[in-house]
Every structure is written in structure tokens, then in C-alpha cells.
Design a protein that fits this description.
Elements lengths: L1 H23 L7 E2 L6 E5 L19 E7 L4 E9 L7 E7 L6 E5 L10 E7 L4 E8 L7 E7 L3 E3 L6 E7 L28 E7 L4 E6 L7 E7 L6 E5 L9 E6 L4 E8 L6 E9 L5 E2 L17 E6 L20 E7 L4 E6 L7 E7 L6 E5 L10 E6 L4 E8 L7 E8 L5
């Protein structure tokens, strides 16, 4: 009987051990507690285990990493998550009030128009408020990611007109906004030039229609400059890292009267700091008439049916941005006004140029619609070519620029008219 009782006691002990194991089992949340570290720049290489939450911005089932963070002071913050070292990782990021639960404060799946596999959210937090940042990765073979928490973009409103404006000081903190359109040349580091440091925003409204130039030449640090459509949360429409022979930035944009954009000045280096200044001026566009008498080719069989105009983009400003090419701003260009002399099929090309060109046509003036654009002519890698039917008397702006900011040099713009005589 005693042995039986002992056996029962042992069994009871086994039950207690099992209960103890349950009591000691780790909670599914949180996976990581950052406490009140700020700013946050956290590389996380541990895979998510459990799927406890359902974000409002994505309905795909996936386990999530649950990260606690406590705000030191009241403010608006931005959190960004992306693959480590720019790796292509499909993420979803959302913020929940309180520890491991509570109301959803913000949610994002794909942030931006050019980089669809990065997530970023802005959220408000009070002093000592703890939130849960949940990170889902849908590429289960690669779960490494970077999590950055910093200030939400600080935007000030511009003065009227075309001011030169001091935006203040950038602090030496990691940034949370990325410039998507500043891309490297093919064959170079594939990670986008993004502006890794802190940022300042400047909301500006065009006083009238025109082409406007923005630069940071008076800033005291290496900058990236990009423009957002409308307010601080608008879509990115243009970007420049370094214009030629400079660590400063320059953009030129055609704008309608009363159109509003947000200009963001970003420290190019992760811990870049210093005074930031932004200059705004109206650009001259087009710069000069295109002097080629194509009409004579139709009637003189002794003359080769080709006209040429030699020029250079060296030491030229950035006036307009073509729709083709690298998509970057800050590329030196030159613009011409041109009236079509005779109806026919024209070919415009830059085959005799000494750098990688982009060639485009705008209808009427510098604010007109783009009729055509070409980076590389068929079968080539460098010169540009356009072929199109044109009517006598049509007016265009012809633009020539490089494919990337460091593509500058001498070029020959040729215009050929097909001879339709019998």
C-alpha cells in the first residue's frame, strides 16, 4: 500500500512537473523588448514563430516578430522595416497600443511607388507609452530585417515667392525616410542611394506656373534632396543625391501655379549632421532656339538629308527631367525651342556624342506634354534616337541630358527628314 501510495505520490510529482513546465514556458509575446532606446537601429535575425495578430493592411497569414518599444517623450515617430543591407524582403509593419495587444495605431504593407517591398509607418506616442511593433515577413526563406525608429518628418512652411531658406540643423541620427528615385548605375552597388541620415521637410507652393530649380549648395553637409507631391506624406516625384562635382543636391521641376510640394533635405550619411539651407529660383526654359534648317533638305538632292547641331552639357544646369533614363534629378541638360519646318517623318538622334544621352520632345513649351523620350537607341547602349511623324508648324522643346548625373560631355544632335519624293 505504501509503495502504491508512493507511486501515486510520484505520479502526482510527475503531474506537478508537467504543470511546472507549463508555468515556465516562454510567452509568445514579446519576442524582443527594446525598452526606451532611441533612436532605434536594430538588426533582427531571429525568425517569427507565432501568428497572433491580424493587421488591417494585409490579409495574408504569417507569423510576426513582436517588438516592444517605449517612447521617452511625447511626439510623432516613424518606424521603417526592410531587408538587411537592402535585401529584397517582403514585409508588413504595424503598431499596436500597449504591450502585446491593444488598438492598432498604424499599418503598412508596401511603402512608396518604386520600392514595393519595404514598410514604414508614422504613429503618435505619449511620454512613457509602450507600443508593440509587429513585423511580418512573407519570404520565409529570408527573415533578416532592419528596424529603424526615429522622428517623423518635420516640415516647415515656406515664405511666399522664391526664398533662400535656412531649414535649421540636422542631428546625427539615423533617418527614417528614404529617397526612392536616387538609383545607382547598372553594375554598381544595387542598393539605392537613400539618404541614411536625419531629414527636414519644407512645404512650398509655386507662385506661378514655370520651371523651378531647388538646391542645397549652401548646406554644410553631404545631402540628398527629394520632392514629395503635396504634403509631407505625398508620393515622391523626384530625387537627387549629388549633382556633378558636388556633394550637395539639385532638382528642377515644372510646376503649375499654386501647386504645392514638400522638399525633403536628407543627410546622405547615416550620422551626418550640420546646417541645412535650401535655395529656390526660376529656371530659364527653353534656353535657346535650335538652329537647323531641315526644310532645305527636301528640295536639294545634292545635300545629304541631315542637319546637325553640336553643343555640350558640361557646366550646364538641370532644367527638366525626362521620363526615360535613370529617373534621377540633378542631371545637367540643355533645352531648345524648335519649330517643325515641313511635314514628314523625322529622326532625331545623338549617335555622334561622347556620353550616354537621353533625348526627349515636349509639346509647345517647357510645361507641355512629353511627345517622345528615348534613353538608348535600338541596338545601342549610349546614344538616343527618336523617330516620329511631325506636321509643319508644330512647336517643341527638344531636350538633351545624360542618363545619370555624372554623364556629361559634348554631343551632336542630328535631325533627319525622310525624302518622300517619287
Amino acid at each position: 500500500d505504501d509503495d502504491a501510495t508512493g507511486d501515486d505520490d510520484d505520479a502526482a510529482g510527475d503531474d506537478d512537473d508537467a504543470t511546472g513546465d507549463d508555468d515556465d514556458s516562454p510567452s509568445a509575446c514579446p519576442d524582443l523588448d527594446l525598452e526606451s532606446v532611441y533612436p532605434v537601429e536594430q538588426a533582427d535575425r531571429d525568425p517569427p514563430v507565432t501568428d497572433e495578430f491580424a493587421p488591417s493592411c494585409d490579409n495574408r497569414p504569417a507569423a510576426e516578430r513582436k517588438v516592444l518599444w517605449t517612447a521617452r517623450k511625447t511626439g510623432r515617430y516613424r518606424a521603417v522595416v526592410q531587408g538587411i543591407d537592402g535585401a529584397d524582403l517582403d514585409t508588413v509593419l504595424y503598431v499596436l497600443d500597449d504591450e502585446c495587444g491593444g488598438e492598432e495605431l498604424a499599418c503598412n504593407d508596401d511603402y512608396g511607388t518604386n520600392n514595393k517591398r519595404r514598410s514604414a509607418v508614422d504613429f503618435q506616442a505619449s511620454s512613457n507609452q509602450t507600443v508593440t511593433l509587429a513585423v511580418e515577413a512573407h519570404d520565409m526563406t529570408d527573415t533578416d530585417y532592419d528596424l529603424v525608429i526615429g522622428p517623423s518628418l518635420r516640415c516647415s512652411y515656406a515664405e511666399d515667392g522664391l526664398p533662400s531658406h535656412s531649414l535649421g540643423e540636422l542631428e546625427a541620427t539615423p533617418g527614417t525616410w528614404d529617397a526612392e528615385k536616387c538609383r545607382k548605375k547598372a553594375g554598381e552597388d544595387p542598393k539605392a542611394v537613400s539618404g541614411l541620415g536625419a531629414e527636414l521637410g519644407y512645404i512650398w507652393t509655386a507662385p506661378h506656373a514655370g520651371v523651378f530649380r531647388f538646391d542645397t549648395v549652401d548646406s554644410l553637409l553631404d545631402t540628398v534632396l527629394y520632392a514629395l507631391d503635396g504634403s509631407c506624406n505625398g508620393e515622391e516625384i523626384a530625387c537627387n543625391d549629388d549633382f556633378p562635382d558636388s556633394k550637395r543636391s539639385r532638382l528642377t521641376l515644372p510646376m503649375d501655379a499654386n501647386q504645392t510640394i514638400t522638399l525633403v533635405v536628407d543627410a546622405a550619411d547615416r550620422m551626418g549632421q550640420g546646417a541645412v539651407a535650401l535655395n529656390i529660383e526660376q529656371a530659364v526654359c527653353p534656353e535657346k532656339p535650335l538652329v537647323i534648317d531641315v526644310d532645305r533638305f527636301r528640295f536639294d538632292p545634292a545635300i545629304d538629308m541631315r542637319g546637325e547641331h553640336a553643343d555640350t552639357t558640361i557646366n550646364r544646369p538641370d532644367t527638366l527631367q525626362a521620363s526615360c533614363g535613370s529617373g534621377q534629378g540633378g542631371i545637367p541638360d540643355i533645352t531648345y525651342s524648335w519649330r517643325v519646318p515641313a511635314t514628314g517623318r523625322y529622326t532625331l538622334h545623338t549617335f555622334d556624342s561622347d556620353f550616354d544621352t537621353v533625348l526627349w520632345l515636349l509639346e509647345d513649351d517647357c510645361l507641355g506634354a512629353e511627345r517622345a523620350c528615348n534613353d538608348d537607341a535600338p541596338g545601342s547602349n549610349g546614344p538616343s534616337s527618336l523617330a516620329l511623324e511631325l506636321e509643319a508648324g508644330e512647336e517643341f522643346v527638344v531636350g538633351v541630358e545624360g542618363a545619370f548625373p555624372d554623364d556629361v560631355g559634348n554631343f551632336v544632335l542630328s535631325i533627319e527628314l525622310e525624302d518622300d519624293r517619287e
